[in-house]
Design the sequence.
């Protein structure tokens, strides 16, 4: 007799080796309804009225005029056409005008 250790017997498995069922992952305790994302809120949110969604026709001018003036102020500052020499204050004024145009652009509908 030999002193070789015995090998464990192989189990006879009839399945394909899949652990989870076909067609998706494991279902939660309530099952999958096919929807993803959060459920409906219990709070009512009224729709935004149509008159609040339309900006007046002059609103694009409120956006583009400050942008243009800001760029012109900065350029005129560096070509020495504004009072005083090159000044950081003129750059600040130009940047603030550009910022006003950007803020106006975020309110456009």
Sequence:
């Amino acid at each position: 007799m030999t002193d070789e250790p015995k090998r464990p017997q192989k189990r006879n498995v009839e399945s394909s080796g899949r652990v989870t069922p076909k067609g998706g992952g494991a279902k939660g305790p309530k099952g999958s309804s096919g929807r993803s994302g959060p459920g409906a809120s219990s709070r009512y949110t009224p729709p935004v009225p149509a008159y609040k969604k339309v900006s007046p026709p002059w609103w694009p001018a409120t956006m583009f005029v400050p942008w243009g003036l800001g760029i012109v102020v900065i350029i005129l500052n560096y070509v020495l056409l504004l009072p005083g020499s090159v000044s950081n204050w003129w750059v600040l004024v130009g940047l603030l005008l550009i910022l006003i145009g950007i803020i106006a652009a975020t309110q456009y509908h």
User: Anything to note?
Assistant: The chain is about 40% helix and 0% strand. Residues 55-106 form one domain. The mean pLDDT is 81. The longest helix spans residues 59-78.
